[in-house]
Design goal:
Order of helices and strands: EEEEEHEEHHEHEHHEEEE
Structural class: alpha+beta
Radius of gyration: 19 Å
Strand content: 15-25%
Length: 348
């Protein structure tokens, strides 16, 4: 399950631009493929393998590496499934950085863009990253590369729009997921966005939800616009609902950001990532560092899917030295696993 970072207020000055938009929330999963032979099967396709990206936290909340195949147990709708595929934490990853460039973030873009170096510094040398931006549509700034200096040079290149521009967040995120490589390798999208979406007519969130149910990318949203997020969980309000909210044609700004918070949190929750609500410009650097650490400390587990066309809940357990799962109701297990909620099984 994803864990919610507590948002805090940002003292940055912001223009009053935003009472437009419509938002929702999500539920998720996805499938990928393989050919099995021996202890470590080779992967040739993605229709008969469900890839589950897992990050492991120790009792202090730090990401933990060094686990092996036999340390994990995966339950599919409560039934244990054998692991057909296992990739340890040191496997290279493909990371997309998706940056909102609409008018809502124009005045504060330097605060989080400059801090992105912390993310790049934390990635492994063989990790590849790509940079995309969006407002009304998706734009590629830099294709996948392991050249971190090229990425740093590209970070300052995005052009920001001013005035009243449409934000197509859900469609842009869906499109960028399509550009990730196929196969059961580590894939992540770091989203720097308000979470607002003004796409009309409704249905775009539902389409994104279906996409996530058929993919295995992990999403790490970093919420922008802290001073405007009056309904964020840091204010002591309820946690995001499990179901996506129905978009409203003309929400007030507080309702808009409440729904945006729910959407960002759900994106993390259903994909096994983590959502961040930075309070001040200084909070971006530790958030990006933690994301880089999470990407490097991911395991990819593969199981065979059922073929019933239904949604299947997943559960990942970390076994003890004796091969036993944590005791039910244990107050403080030694490890916690972050992973996506489930997957949509192929049709019979």
């Amino acid at each position: 399950m994803a864990f919610l970072e507590r948002p805090r207020r940002c003292r940055t000055a912001w223009p009053l631009l935003f009472c437009l938009l419509a938002f929702f929330s999500v539920s998720a999963s996805r499938a990928a493929q393989e050919n099995s032979s021996g202890a470590q099967p080779s992967i040739e396709s993605a229709s008969d393998l469900v890839a589950v990206d897992v990050s492991v936290l120790d009792s202090k909340g730090d990401f933990y590496g060094g686990l092996e195949r036999n340390d994990f147990r995966v339950l599919d709708n409560g039934v244990q499934k054998p692991l057909l595929f296992f990739t340890p934490v040191d496997a290279p990853a493909h990371v997309v950085i998706l940056v909102e460039t609409g008018p809502a973030v124009y005045l504060i873009h330097e605060q989080h863009i400059e801090a992105l170096s912390a993310l790049l510094d934390g990635l492994a040398p063989d990790d590849q990253a790509a940079l995309y931006t969006y407002s009304d549509s998706l734009r590629q700034v830099l294709a996948f590369t392991a050249d971190k200096s090229a990425l740093r040079n590209s970070i300052g290149e995005p052009e920001y729009t001013v005035g009243m521009d449409q934000l197509n967040f859900y469609d842009s995120l869906s499109a960028v997921i399509d550009r990730l490589p196929a196969g059961p390798e580590k894939k992540a999208v770091v989203v720097l966005a308000t979470g607002l979406d003004s796409s009309i007519p409704p249905g775009h969130w539902e389409a994104l939800e279906r996409k996530l149910r058929g993919d295995d990318v992990v999403i790490f949203p970093v919420a922008l616009g802290g001073s405007l997020r009056g309904g964020s969980p840091a204010k002591g309000k309820k946690k995001p609902k499990k179901k996506a909210a129905t978009p409203s044609a003309a929400p007030d700004s507080e309702t808009a950001f409440e729904r945006a918070d729910q959407a960002l949190a759900r994106l993390a929750e259903i994909t096994g990532g983590k959502v961040y609500f930075p309070q001040t410009p200084a909070d971006f650097v530790p958030a990006y560092r933690e994301i880089a650490e999470a990407v490097r400390h991911q395991y990819v587990l593969g199981i065979a899917p059922d073929h019933d066309g239904a949604f299947h809940k997943l559960s990942v357990e970390i076994l003890d030295l004796h091969g036993r799962p944590p005791k039910p109701g244990a107050k403080k297990p030694p490890y916690r696993a972050l992973y996506r909620e489930g997957y949509s099984a192929p049709a019979p």
